[in-house]
Amino acid sequence: NPALAAGVVRADRNLLAAGAAAEAERKGGAAEPPKLRLEPMSPEDRFFPFSYAKESDGNCVTEQEVLDISGGIRELLAESKIRVFPRNGFLLGIIRHGGFLPNEHVDADMGIVSTDLDRWKSEVSDKGTFRAGRFAFKLKPTETWWVNWKGLDPETKEPYPFFGVNIHLDKLNIHASSVYVYPYGEDQFFYPHLGIKRLNAKVGALDAIRWNKEGADVRLVDSDTKLESSNYEEGVQMGNILDTKLDCFVERQFYFTTIPVPCDYDVILTSLYGKNWNKSESRGDLDGAK
């Protein structure tokens, strides 16, 4: 339906105004939520995506999963002003293929702007749970297995209060990792560069060094130094710098429907994968992608 995206966004704009007013009244003058802009999808951005399943077979995304994921993100943006969005390979798959990456199963990597949860700090239980609208949240600390992420603020060296959240609504269960405000720049965020020893940390570092040569922006965040082969070492915190305010979201095709993604998706994908992010590449083996 060519009018699908426009209709969805018109509805979301009404929700946005109503949600903001209700939230302000409920919180009694709490911190202002972020100002967001939602835009419809351009007709030229439509293309025919690969298939999805009516019922789960363990390999393909189902029709209900597509609706749950896209609808959950849209509702959180419109009603709660919580910026949850597709990140990394999930974002790449949406922009380049109209769905999940063809070589992956259902892998809904999400990012969440950590400061958007500040308005609910007073409601967090001793178990790290709280509610925002219809959604239940559970805060998660930084796990211990990341090679180049220790969960420490690059400037203060103090631990961040959480690294990610689990978001629940009925059958929907989303895990979203934190996107933090970058302390060395204005209107910038960063996403920790994650890898597990003896699994993907080595190849991830090699890829990041190569992609940096192609325009990516992976840095040693504690020193605000761009990652190179000469300065990489295990244990040093790394992150992708996102040069965007994350204040605008646009609908893009997601199988038979649409899903909100950051308007600056090109900036984000370039930061992650370099200027050639829109070209598929052979992944090679674990000694480094080719």
**What oligomeric state best describes the polypeptide chains here?**
single chain
Distance between the termini: 39 Å
The largest sheet is:
10 strands, mixed
Strand content: 15-25%
How much is the radius of gyration in Å? 19 Å
- Percent of residues in helices comes to 25-40%
Tally of separate helices: 5
Written as H for each helix and E for each strand, in order along the chain, the element string is HEHEHEEEEEEHEEEEEH
Structural class: alpha+beta
**What's the overall geometry?**
globular
Question: Quick one: how many beta strands?
Answer: 13
- Mean pLDDT over all positions: 85
**Which regions contain 5 or more consecutive residues with pLDDT less than 50?**
1-29, 285-290
What does this structure look like?
With about 290 residues, the chain is α+β, with helices and mostly antiparallel strands. It is about 25% helix and about 20% strand. The chain is built from five helices and 13 strands. The strands form two sheets. Strands 2, 3, 4, 5, 6, 7, 8, 9, 10 and 11 form a ten-stranded mixed β-sheet that branches. It has a three-stranded mixed β-sheet with strand order 1-12-13. Strand 6 and strand 7 form a beta hairpin.
Secondary structure layout:
Blueprint: H1 4-27, E1 37-39, H2 63-80, E2 84-86, H3 88-97, E3 110-113, E4 129-132, E5 135-140, E6 164-169, E7 172-181, E8 189-192, H4 201-212, E9 218-220, E10 225-226, E11 238-242, E12 248-254, E13 257-262, H5 265-273
Parallel strand pairs: 1-12, 3-7
Antiparallel strand pairs: 2-3, 4-5, 5-6, 6-7, 7-8, 8-11, 9-10, 9-11, 12-13
Helix pairs in contact: 1-2
